[in-house]
Each structure stands twice: as structure tokens, then as C-alpha cells.
Amino acid sequence: MRPIFSxxxxxxxxxxxxxxxxxxxxxxxxxxxxxxxxxxxxRTNTKTLSIQVKFSKDFLxxxxxxxxxxxxxxxxxxxxxxxxxDKIKDSPADLWILVLYxxxxxxxxxxxxxxxxxxxxxxxxxxxxxxxxxxxxxxTSGKCWETRGLNxxxxxxxxxxEYSESIRDLSSCLNNWQIVERKLL
Length: 185
Hints:
Layout: H1 9-21, E1 26-28, E2 38-41, E3 48-57, H2 69-74, E4 75-84, H3 85-89, E5 95-102, E6 107-113, H4 115-124, E7 131-139, E8 144-146, H5 152-159, H6 178-184
Parallel strand pairs: 3-5
Antiparallel strand pairs: 1-2, 2-3, 4-7, 5-6, 7-8
């Protein structure tokens, strides 16, 4: 076993969050790249949960002058990922965790989702190509949305909590650590 990679920021944030919040869980780092970034076990190491972590810096600071005041003040973070559909489909991980880190306030949010649900949402949004661009926003009111392809009026509606397209609504996945609790505690 030779170290060929190191823990990235998202893996560190997820691992430390689990260790701090759940004292009876163990967090493990695989010795080789298998598509699983973290393995979490119960106290007796008999129940397991595998996690793929995807990290994004906050892209809202670079959205430009065309940003409305509502978006600038009511959307607290926005992440951008490029996924491969085949990687999501063939993922061995039980969960994918998207980490949105807000540099201005040094806080973060986690979108916790099963890969099959993530893939189903992209399919329903018409994202059938192998390369999937994903923009996720978290609002100050605690809502979470997939925003790729939305026009400015829809973006403004998200910021004002006036948007309602359910397939884009990831709020149930936002900081939803109950899925970890159900599987391991």
C-alpha cells in the first residue's frame, strides 16, 4: 500500500463532521481509489456506509454584475460540479455528499443523496448526455436547488422562496444526516 492521493477538503469536512456529531461512528479512508472516499462504520464495525464526496468552492462570489440583489443577498452558497453519468450509475458508494463551502463565512452545507436518486433527478431534467453540469444553490432560508439552465427570473424566484419545481428541489437532501443515522445507529 502506497499513498497515491491525499484527503481533499470535502472529504476532510465530511469526515470531521461525522466524527464530531456521531461519537459512536468510525470514519475510514480507503487505501486505494475505488470510487469510495470514506467508509463509515458503527461502533462495533459491523454496519457500514460508503460515501463518495464531491467538493465545490462557492461560485456565487464570481457570478458577475448581472446578479440581482435578491440572489446576491438571499443565496448563501452555490456550487458547480461536472459529473459523468456513467460514474454516478456505476458508483459503488451508498451515498454521494456534495459539499458547498462558503468562503465568506467559512461555513458549509452538505447535500446528501443516494446516487440512483441523483441520476434519476438529472434524467428527469433532461440531462441524458454522459457529461452533466450541475449548479446547486443553498438559500439563507434553508432551501436547496439544482439551478443549471434556469433563467434569471427563475433564479430570482429561488432567492425569494417563490420557486416550486419539485424535481429541482434538493432541500430534503440538505444536511440530511438522518440517512446516515438510519443506516448505522
